[in-house]
Write a structure and sequence with these properties.
With 157 residues, the chain is of the alpha+beta class. The protein has five helices and seven strands.
Length: 157
């Protein structure tokens, strides 16, 4: 894996990010019911990603190999409450090369620079991965009818 770069998504990269997002939701988040996946895709349309790109609270990161997007992280620092990492995804052919860790690390730094002191994430089946990165388990909850682990990360001052 050469030439992997983690950057903020540019306006020009949003169509490719949207295509990868749609593919990922359809093919790799099948633990959510189909109607939920369809709603999530609608909520992350090209128009919505464009609006997120110009919202200073939102963070859209991409992992690129050469010029092709192979992963992404989407998060936000709301005005009130903890920051959130909503999505973290790396194409299966590129897993195992710490690309997800690079995306996550950059996301934590960017959210911290926006003033986050705590960052939350919900995961269906990657609790141990996030715990190894310093997240602490908080509770289980149902998200769209799926059992999820909620974890938080304390940003060092």
């Amino acid at each position: 894996m050469t030439n992997i770069r983690i950057t903020e998504a540019s306006v020009l990269s949003l169509p490719a990010l949207n295509r990868l997002f749609v593919n990922a939701v359809h093919n790799h988040f099948q633990y959510f019911p189909e109607h939920v996946r369809n709603r999530v895709i609608k909520d992350h349309s090209l128009v919505r990603l464009s609006l997120a790109k110009v919202d200073p609270r939102r963070v859209l990161l991409v992992a690129k190999q050469d010029q092709r997007i192979i992963g992404y992280a989407i998060g936000a620092k709301p005005a009130i409450g903890p920051a959130q990492v909503y999505w973290l995804y790396v194409e299966p052919d590129h897993r195992g090369a710490n690309i997800g860790l690079s995306l996550l690390s950059r996301m934590l730094k960017v959210l911290g620079s926006k003033g986050a002191s705590e960052i939350a994430i919900a995961t269906h089946d990657h609790r141990r991965y996030y715990e190894r990165q310093g997240f602490k388990w908080v509770r289980n909850t149902m998200v769209y009818g799926v059992k999820m682990d909620i974890l938080t990360f304390k940003v060092k001052a």
